[in-house]
What we know:
It is a single chain. By secondary structure, the protein is an alpha+beta fold. Helix content is 34%, strand content 20%. The protein has 24 helices and 24 strands. The strands form six sheets. Strands 5-4-3-6-2-1-7-8 form an eight-stranded mixed sheet. The protein has a five-stranded mixed sheet with strand order 9-10-13-11-12, sandwiched between helices. It has a four-stranded antiparallel sheet with strand order 18-19-20-24. Helix 9 (262-271) packs parallel to helix 10 (311-327) and helix 18 crosses helix 23 (656-667). The radius of gyration is 34 Å and the shape is flat.
Amino acid sequence: MSKIQVLDQITIDKIAAGEVIERPASVVKELAENAIDAGATAVTVEIKEGGITFMRIADNGIGIDKEDVRAAFLRHSTSKIRSAEDLAHISSLGFRGEALSSIAAVSQVELLTKTKEAEFGVRYKIAGGKEESLEDAGAPDGTTFLIRQLFYNTPARRKFLKTAMTEASHVGDLVTRLALSHPEVSFRFINNGQVKLHTSGNGNLKDVIYHIYGREIASNLIEVDFERKGIHITGYLGKPLISRGNRNFENYFVDGRYIKSSIISKAIEDGYKDFTMQHKYPFVVLYLDVDTEHVDVNVHPTKMDVRFNNQQEIYNTLFAAVDDGLHERELIPEVTLDDIKIPEEPKDCKSNFPEEPKESKKNLPKKSEAEHTEKLRTSLQSPQNEDEKLQYFMNEMKKRVYSYHEALHENKQETTPALSNTDSCKPQKNVSVQDSYKPQKDIPVQDSYKPQKNIPVQNSYKPQRNVQAQGSQIAEAPNYTAKQVPAEKPQQLNFFEEKLLEPQAKAEHKIIGQVFDTYWLVEFHDNLYIIDQHAAHERVLYEQTLKGMKTREFTSQLISPPIVLNLSMQEAELLRLYMDQFTRIGFEIEEFGQDSYAVRAVPDNLFSIAKKELLMEMIDSLSDEINRNAPSNLIDEKIASMSCKAAVKGNMRLSAAEVDTLITELLSLDNPYHCPHGRPTIIAMSRRELEKKFKRIV
Length: 698
């Protein structure tokens, strides 16, 4: 009997299905991509129990003709390509013709489809690769797949699935990526009867980002539009303050296809290297439009991996796009104090405002005040929307504050002695209302509180929609009543109008002093800047060393005993390849037996920190197949990074003259906003934020 036998078709299909269908998310990916290829503008994904027992993927695409339904479920049957030559110019998401066959081999599938021209739709059922029925049925235009009992006939595969919650999270993550890759398509994701995601499909990528990730991320984006050598990159970069501890927020798409690529990830992370700390990863949504001749998507059955025949060009272009986008703006993170819950008023201090004199209270009808309170309570309890509640609240506040100060002005002569008896609440005399909410002798009180004509009061107090009520941009007018200044969530400031680190601004810097022997306070216009002396000095030393190494003559310092490096075959080859670069900057290295090398001298500026670990780290950094710099520059960067150990530390007192010199040196740097390890050197707090915390503005 022959030992080698040809497997039957069902077994072949099950083996093939194992390559394409790994979990419920794999099914959703294949069918949703088919929907996009079919020209759908709306795709619905519904799952139950993580998609293990039920999945529904519906679209409004062109549908499938009745005569093509059976053929669609055969292996390697497709409408996307016709010959091997077409593989070099693939523009569709699917093309292998394996998806439907693989899904039908391991689940119970029901297909309901109709083309626009057909009078009736088609219902087709197939389970375990065996056809059950094909019949006419009423159906809307488009295609709907019902997938039940995934891996029901391969229990060994089914037991390796995770919990329903874990599988549902994988499906949700996939739908999120699909929505980002195609903002022109409306995606709806339903999990166990609950709508988890529903995008509009209006083609606006920023709207999709806002809908998925929320206001904090959507308000901290930098738009990118970069093109070089036929590679076009568009999308958004997240500002460094929204970095994460994993790569889940790195979203990149090649020709509309969601993929995973170590080359693209490396280019993005290297572009952010100066802006983020170690083990922190950026938020990006980037589209790479590359000529299909340079991309091979026929690498893996799941089509998650692609290969580029111009890897270095892809890396260089993407790195330049990220680097230019981040350096185009001067970004200093603005900090805000967390909102503090206001405690109950102490018995000896009933209000932060002056008490109303008894005479003024007589002028306010009690009934009217009670009606206002009751109306306000009723309004807030009624099922109005949030805007109406806030609008009504601000109108009522306007009336009450205005009437209060009208009465207070009429009794101005009696107001001052009628204040709270507690010294801690007692207002000082001759202080303007705008500064302390208390009347100044020669200024009518209502002029300080009363909104200007033709400017609604709610614009002075009410934060605008979609903008969180904290922080502000640096270039804002101090007259907050007259100007409609939106209050924003803490964000990195864009200093196009007023730049702290510009030579012409140096004369306006006001150094206030040092706190905790580490941080220096600098006042500039309407902002307070806090400079970390250690991080700032690190950055100065790093860039100065890097520039100096390109121009200076190097001297070597002999070390005894020499450092012996035992290298692998690959490491030894790298060292031999780049020996000239090591020699140029001051190293003396000679062979010391098989694949061993003795380091007898090092550059003089590395003498104190020259260790075996440092040298091995430098060699390892040269082993990457893709790099943005020449090998000599990589070595220079490593040495410059090591030289940062000489920077002034925290808890070291500096004189004002030394800090002034440090700030002057910061002015000349390419990136003065982050130390070489990604930590910020400067943070800012706006005057508005301070005034909000002291309740000078509401």
